[in-house]
């Protein structure tokens, strides 16, 4: 069987690329297709594949400009030639799911999210104060086309897998399609306790994209004066650094071993964005460390809060019986985060590192690999019958 794996772009190692690594192990002879590949930006496991890129690869300085070419990406992904492949596995948070599968093939999409830039997080990327007027005007013109294309090409997918129940609901809302939920993996072998003792600092591990809301952490810790270490880079870097007080340290991107050490030594991970899933809270929990998170999106499925969680769909608060692994704040404001940090300090002793890690083991790589492989094999078998 000839297999193609399709990924939006290969420009760095984030949560989507961790899933891609599993797909590469699961199908070691598969070819890899992507819009843009920056050599050396992803792990050797991915780099060593046969990688086919789109015509966007030839754009000068594409490694810095690819985000600005969003209007061209639907055309570029549709031009990838997948003739002769029996199975197409797309790993999509932007346009990968819109690839053209050959007749008679099976197209399974592992959907990290419907394209957030054009749907529910449009204002966080292109609203006033987030983008210049020329970019806002351009996006206002192309967004209706992108939304139409995004919905229509969902029909090219035979089976959707959502990375969370949160994303499953968004697939239903925008594409009117059903999806099976298989949570992404955390490398619980690598992210395991190192014996290092917690120190007096909090931690953020995040790309500096607008929806990540790292600005809330900067504002809250400026007010508190507590030590905060921020690992990451991105488009909001200059603005965040200009607002940060002396207690906030920016480390840029660090090696895996350095990030692991920071997880091991922090008091808690601060997680301010509404994520479709969010892998860093699970990495911190795999290290036995608690999480202080905005109680929206994927963390509702990965973090066990110390207090009952309000469920809007039922109108009641759900009390959790398992050992807590974190604290939620419920409004995307610095004031709400401040309140959660102060509450965390009052209950910090109740967080048990062993119980926190045991919870993270439920999301390990072996669990993800088995579920993905079994799902695809079942769908292939049903098509043979």
Description:
With 385 residues, the chain is of the alpha/beta class. The chain folds into 2 domains: 3-184 and 365-384, 3-Layer(aba) Sandwich (Rossmann fold), CATH 3.40.50; 202-361, Rossmann fold. 37% of the residues lie in helices and 16% in strands. It is built from 15 helices and 15 strands. It has helices spanning 15-26, 44-47, 62-65, 73-78, 122-126, 133-152, 165-175, 214-224, 237-243, 256-265, 280-286, 299-302, 334-347, 353-361, 365-384; strands at 3-7, 31-34, 51-53, 87-92, 106-111, 159-162, 179-181, 202-205, 228-231, 248-252, 269-271, 291-294, 309-311, 316-318, 326-329. Strands 3-2-1-4-5-6-7 form a 7-stranded parallel beta sheet, with helices on both faces. It has a 3-stranded parallel beta sheet with strand order 8-9-10, with helices on both faces. Strand 8 (202-205), helix 8 (214-224) and strand 9 form a beta-alpha-beta unit. Helix 8 packs across helix 13 (334-347) and helix 11 (280-286) crosses helix 14 (353-361). The longest helix is centred in the middle third of the chain and has 20 residues, at 133-152. It is globular.
